[in-house]
Amino acid sequence: MLIVDDVLTTGTSIFEVVELVKKYNASIVGIGEFLDRSGGRVKLAYPFKPLATISADAWNRMTARCVKRACRSLSGKPEVLDRS
Hints:
Elements: E1 2-8, H1 12-23, E2 30-36, E3 48-53, H2 61-75
Parallel strand pairs: 1-2, 2-3
């Protein structure tokens, strides 16, 4: 079975699909990705081929909540922060 996904950032959805496929005893021959934005941080146990690769930071949920709270306390509403 070839698994194909749209965007890889943290790998959560790919790992979930791999576990599901394993439950059905199917053989995984590789993983294809349209866009890999993990920066090489996600390590997969199968051959992996992205069509395009970019480097992008990902915030975990706790960091995202803290940023959201900080924005609310400053302006009364969440706003988008420029991380560049």
